[in-house]
Amino acid sequence: MKQSLPSRPGTIVSPLVSTADSHSRRRGPGTELADAQLARHAVAVVLASGRGARLRQLSLNNAKPALDFGGKFRIVDFALSNCLNSGIRRMAVLTQYNSHSLIQHVQRAWSFLRGELNEMVDVLPAHQRGGEEDWYRGTADSVYRNLDILLPSAGTPRYVVVMAGDDVYKMDYAILLRDHVAHGRGCTIACAEIPRAEASTYGVMSVHDDLTVASFIEDPVEPPSMPARPDISLVSMGIYVFDASYLVELLESDALDPHSSHDFGRDIIPMTVAQSRAVAHPFHRSCVTRDSLPSAPPYWRRIDTLDAFLAAHLDLAAVIPALDLYDAQWPIWTDQRQLPPAKFVFDLNGQPGLVINSTVSAGCVIVGSQIKDSVIFSAVRVMSFCDILKSVLMPGVQVGAGCRLRRVIVEGNCVLPEGLVVGEDAAADRTRFERTGAGTVLITKAMLTHLAQENVPNAP
Prior knowledge:
460 residues, six-stranded mixed beta sheet, 11 helices, 23% helix, glycogen biosynthesis, ATP-binding, EC 2.7.7.27, glycogen metabolism
């Protein structure tokens, strides 16, 4: 067995096998039709109801899956695009907190599916029915309360694919389904390797040689490591496949348990493991990698902190991006405004700017500034003499002349005053904005309003 390639924090490499074996779209002869048939018998459930508290003010007014990502997308687009590209045409998005922008985006971006062809993307907000006094009590409860919609008596799907709506990755769920059917245990859990130091917020698992899950611990204080690999833990990706009938049994049993937290990771998955009905699916088997770099590590990043949000964007800005958004065979679908091309012009002194290792979206105007290793979203304006490094400017941001930004995330539609310097003085950043221990700085409209009211100097 070969060792996996070294990982950088939060970036996932293939579990249990060498990354050189990652060839997700190179299916064997005769498998494409079989995979398509399996996909037609499945319904996908995207769990998009979390608060996203670890993203701090960035998710204050938006559900985490609705956050802008990658210059023109929303985070939820990755899970939905994986479904569509895998042949799964029946999808449901379960929402609860700050759901308006998420519902609006899904309605606008995914309305092209045709109900008469048994295709759908249903948005299912939290609701109360007769006799119910609570909103969703957990991820499992959210699915349980919608079983009559997800599994109608007519045309009931055989398989249910459950996934989080706040991860960025490309995965062929048809191959995951094929693995699930081949093992025939009732539940399949997609898994990946991450550094043990980062595993305390995941479901950590161990597996037997036949990939049957031996143990599963959600959010362990001391995550167990993999055999002979003390620095690596095997974790659940939060992507599950269930036989539909088995999932109903599990959810009905869980609903009657007064001690349950009604959560997939804390309650449902441990139940399947205790019944010896859970099997692990190594991510390398179904990841979608670029054809030009078949040995590249499979990419999966959970967008749950400001540092992770920035790091994922820096991955996109790399010379060879770890996540390929230019793959016409596996496109990421989204809703986008009709905007003119990006424009680059001389600064006030007639000198050109310089943009290196960065993505610049439509509708942007960059006036003679230096931008490196950054992601610039749509309709951004950057005025003269700015110096921007390893930063993310979200849609509609306006950057005044002479600004210097280092490791900064700027919320959409912010207007940065001239001469603002952020990311060079940690103490000054903390007094004005949100700064993480790793040095990522978040700027929001509310923070800028407070800055103006307090008349705090722009530069430290």
